[in-house]
């Protein structure tokens, strides 16, 4: 049975993906606020022992990540880098603090978790990394300069890693998402445009399909672009 780790399982895409995948895989995950997660637990939530608390905005040392993850099985073979945050504003009104927070949660989290789990994948000669990216890494949008920069950095990082681990039977899939109805958007936008947005549960279905198709040895799904039916918002 595949052992899967998902960052950012508290809500949105992470929560829906964990809910779907745990029906047939052994799923683990991280949340930045364990007490809040436990307070909102229901039958679809992951078991408590499968959850670790990591606030990537404050935890940026590999040694600290190792300590937090040492209770998990060492042979995780699917990593889903999902944790993310966005501050949308004109560049001239943006701050260094906003840039650092987005880099920490969007980029460094994926870097640190991949550092943690990739060595085991190499030893197993098998593995899959799925990165939840944004079409903002492919297309310019107003007020998204900092967010776009973090997602572009993430895409470039994993495009290079992919070339390094092809011979180890490790697959890396970057999923570029258009407007998705998650907490990245403010409440006003979700009320106004929510019906046009991609649903987190739909993204979970795609992730499930990627994991299934990763069993095909002769091919790799490198990039998937998902946009709302009627275009970008």
Query: What would you call the structural class?
Result: alpha/beta
Structural Rg: 17 Å
Q: Spell out the helices and strands N to C.
A: EHEHEHEHEHEHHE
Strand order of the largest sheet: 3-2-1-4-5-6-7
Rounded mean pLDDT score: 94
Instruction: Report the biggest beta sheet as strand number plus sense, adding barrel if it closes.
Output: 7 strands, parallel
Unreliable parts: none
The multimeric state of the shown protein is single chain
Outline: globular
| Amount of helix | 40-55%
How far apart the termini lie comes to 39 Å
β-strand percent reads 15-25%
Number of discrete helical segments: 7
Number of strands: 7
Task: Walk me through the structure.
This protein is an alpha/beta fold. Helices cover 41% and strands 16% of the residues. The chain contains seven helices and seven strands; from the N terminus they run βαβαβαβαβαβααβ. The chain has helices at 12-21, 34-39, 62-69, 96-124, 145-165, 187-193, 200-213; strands spanning 3-7, 26-31, 51-53, 78-81, 127-134, 170-177, 223-226. A seven-stranded parallel β-sheet has the order 3-2-1-4-5-6-7, sandwiched between helices. The chain is globular and about 45 Å long. The N and C termini lie far apart (39 Å). 39% of the residues are buried.
């Amino acid at each position: 049975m595949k052992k899967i780790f998902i960052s950012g399982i508290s809500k949105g895409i992470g929560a829906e993906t964990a809910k779907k995948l745990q029906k047939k895989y052994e799923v683990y995950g991280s949340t930045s606020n364990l007490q809040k997660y436990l307070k909102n637990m229901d039958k679809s939530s992951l078991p408590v022992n499968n959850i670790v608390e990591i606030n990537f905005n404050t935890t940026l040392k590999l040694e600290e990540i190792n300590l937090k993850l040492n209770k998990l099985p060492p042979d995780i073979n699917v990593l889903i880098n999902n944790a993310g945050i966005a501050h949308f504003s004109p560049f001239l009104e943006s701050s260094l603090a906003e840039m650092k927070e987005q880099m920490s949660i969007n980029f460094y989290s994926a870097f640190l978790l991949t550092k943690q789990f990739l060595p085991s994948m190499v030893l197993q000669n098998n593995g899959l990394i799925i990165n939840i990216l944004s079409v903002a890494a492919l297309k310019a949008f107003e007020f998204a300069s900092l967010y776009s920069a973090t997602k572009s950095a993430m895409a470039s990082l994993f495009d290079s890693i992919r070339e390094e681990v092809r011979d180890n039977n490790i697959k890396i899939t970057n999923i570029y998402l258009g407007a998705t109805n998650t907490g990245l958007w403010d409440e006003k936008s979700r009320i106004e445009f929510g019906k046009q947005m991609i649903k987190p549960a739909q993204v979970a279905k795609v992730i499930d399909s990627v994991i299934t198709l990763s069993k095909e040895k002769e091919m790799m799904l490198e990039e998937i672009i998902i946009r709302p039916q009627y275009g970008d918002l």
